[in-house]
């Protein structure tokens, strides 16, 4: 009677795992899709949300002006990622100064506002 060596059993199991891993489908990554109408109600609301949440969290006095560019992506696990460039104004005495900000927001359209998340908000250096 032949006995299997522990090393041989481990090697066979490892090869089996490699074969199984090679046959699994590649992870599906959703592509970013450009939004042609940045005045779309949902897109504007996402931009307003980003400016409001950032302003409240960082005690910055910013006012939403517009969405300059927008892209969406289906998020893993549900919801939608929104990658926006928004224009926001900062009051400065006589006139407001406007700057553009790169934003990343996750949310589910039609859900409560407390389920949305601002993932990134940073000023774009001009």
TrEMBL record:
Ranges where the Cystatin domain occurs: 37-109
Q: Which residues form a coiled coil?
A: none
Write down the InterPro entries for this protein, in alphabetical order: Cystatin (IPR027214), Cystatin_dom (IPR000010), Cystatin_sf (IPR046350)
The cross-references to Gene3D superfamilies, in alphabetical order and at most eight, read: 3.10.450.10
Leader sequence segment: 1-30
Q: Which SUPFAM superfamilies match?
A: Cystatin/monellin
Q: Which family does it belong to?
A: Belongs to the cystatin family. Phytocystatin subfamily.
What is the recorded name of this protein?
Cystatin domain-containing protein
Q: Which organism is it from?
A: Urochloa decumbens
């Amino acid at each position: 009677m032949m006995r299997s060596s522990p090393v041989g059993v481990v090697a066979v199991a490892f090869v089996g795992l490699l074969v199984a891993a090679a046959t699994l489908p590649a992870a599906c990554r959703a592509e970013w899709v450009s939004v042609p109408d940045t005045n779309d109600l949902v897109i504007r609301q996402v931009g307003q949300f980003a400016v409001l949440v950032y302003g409240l969290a960082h005690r910055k006095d910013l006012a939403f002006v517009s969405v300059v560019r927008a892209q969406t992506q289906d998020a893993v696990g549900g919801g939608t990622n929104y990658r926006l460039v928004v224009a926001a104004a900062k009051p400065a005495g006589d006139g407001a100064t406007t700057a553009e900000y790169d934003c990343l927001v996750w949310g589910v359209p039609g859900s409560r506002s407390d389920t949305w998340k601002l993932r990134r908000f940073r000023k774009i250096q001009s």
